[in-house]
Amino acid sequence: MVFCGVDPNRRQSRELEKKITAWMKDYKKAIKILLLGAGESGKTTIIKQMKILHISGFSPEEKREKAQDIRNNIMEGITTLTRNLDELNIELEQEENQEAKDYILSIDPENFNFPEEFYVYTMQLWSDAGIQEVYSQQHRFQLIDCAKYFLDKVDVVKQPDYEPTIQDILHSRRRTTDIQKIEFEVKVPKKYGGGSLNFWMYDVGGQRGERKKWIQVFDGIQAVLFLVSTSCFDLVIREDEETNRLQESINIFRSMWNSRFLKYSGFIVFLNKQDILKEKVTHGRTRIAEYFPEYNNYKLLSKDRDSQENEEYLRARCFIRDKFIDISKQVVKREGRRLAPGLQPQDDWPARECYCHFTTATDTNNVRIVFEDVHNMIIMWNLSEIGVNVS
Ligand SMILES: Nc1nc2c(ncn2[C@@H]2O[C@H](COP(=O)(O)OP(=O)(O)OP(=O)(O)O)[C@@H](O)[C@H]2O)c(=O)[nH]1
Ligand SMILES: [Mg+2]
Predict the structure, then answer these.
(1) How far is the CA of 61 from the centre of ligand 1 (A)?
(2) What global pTM score does this model have?
(3) What is the pLDDT of residues 253-278, one digit of tens each?
(4) From the CA of 350, how far away is ligand 1's center (Å)?
(5) Cα separations in angstroms, 195 against 21, 192, 201
(6) Rounded CA separation 233/240 (Å)
(7) Where in the chain does DSSP place strands (E)?
(8) Which domains are delineated in the chain?
(9) Which residues contact 360 (CB under 8 A, 6 or more apart)?
(10) Which of 126, 289, 301, 326 lies deepest, with the highest CB count within 10 Å?
(11) Does the annotation flag 136 for ligand binding?
(12) Is 203 annotated as a binding residue?
C-alpha cells in the first residue's frame, strides 16, 4: 500500500529541527557557566582542564608562570611543615637536619630567589621521619593539597630548565583573586541538533574576601558548577581557622541555591577531590564522625553500592552528597511554585533539581567523561525551555 501526504513523524522531526536551529542561532553568542565554591575546592583546576580539553593547552609563557607557582608551592609546603614541628612538639629524626630547619624557617618569602641550597635542605627535611610525622597530622594545620606531590619531585623542579608537565600544572596552586573568563567551543551530539556551541566559563576566587565579587557575574548564567572539596571534612578554613571547611561549603551552597539572582540557573555539584577523600577514609587518621556525628547513623542505600569499591569510602561520599541534595530539597511547594525558605509566596521560583557528580579535577579523563554529561545536560535544559523534549 502507498501512503500519500506528509508522514506525521517526519513533520514532527522537521519541526523539531527548525526549533533547534532557531535556538542554536539564538545561543550562537554563548552558554554561560559559572564556577562557584569555597577556596581550594578546585574551580581553577577545572578551568585548566577546559584549556586542555577544548583549547590548545598552555603557552610557553603560561608554563613559565606555572613553574614559578610550583616553586612557591614547594616553599609554602616545606615551611608550613617545618613550622609545625615545634607547634606539634615533634622532634627531627636526624639531628644534623637542624641546620636545614633553621634555614627554612629564616626564609623571607617576599624576597626569595630559590638558590640551590634551598632545594638541598628541602629534600633533606622532606625525607626526615619527623617531618613525615608532621605531614601525617596535616588536619591540624593549613597545608596546600599539592605539598606532597611537589615535595616528592624537588629534584626535577629544581632544574634550571624545568618545564612543568600537564599533571604538574594541574596540581599547582595559586589563589584566585580576580574574575577570569575562558571561551571554548563544544560539539553538539547529532541527537540534539549537531553543530557546535560556544561556552563561556567564569572562574572566581572562593575565599571569604573574594565572594562579594561573585554577584558581578550572576547575570545570564545558565549553569552553576558548584565545587566541593569533599576531603576537607577534617579541616578548618584558612580565613578564620575555626569554621569546618565542609560546613563552610554547605553554607555557601545553601545561600547560592536560594539566591534569587540564580533562580533560573541550573545547578550541578561537583563533589571533588574524590582521590584524597578515598585515601583519607581508607588510610587516614581522622574519621568523619568526629566532625559530623550524624555520620554514625548514616546507612548506604543499595542503589549507591558498588562491589568494586571500598564500602566505607562509598558511605562517606554518599553522606557528603546527601548534605547537598538535602538542601536542594528543602524547598517547599506552594501553589505549584517552589519557594526557598524565607521567600514570599508571590516570588516566582522555578522548579529545579540539583545534579551531583563525583569528581577528581586533577584527572583529565574523569573530567572529560563528567563534562560530556554536563554539556549534554545544559543543552537539554535549554531545549526543554523552548519546549523541545529530547529525553
Ligand atoms: N588531589 C587532588 N587535588 C585537587 C583536586 N582538585 C583540585 N586539587 C588541587 O587543589 C588545589 C586547589 O585547587 P584550585 O583549583 O586552585 O582551587 P580554587 O577553588 O580555584 O581555589 P580559590 O582560587 O582559592 O577559590 C590545587 O593544588 C589543585 O591541584 C582533586 O580532585 N584531587
Ligand atoms: Mg581558583
Answers:
(1) 21
(2) 0.90
(3) 999 998 989 988 999 999 999 999 99
(4) 32
(5) 10, 9, 20
(6) 16
(7) 31-37, 180-187, 196-203, 223-229, 266-272, 332-334, 337-339, 354-358
(8) 8-39+176-385 (3.40.50.300), 60-171 (1.10.400.10)
(9) 272, 273, 274, 275, 366, 367
(10) 126
(11) no
(12) yes
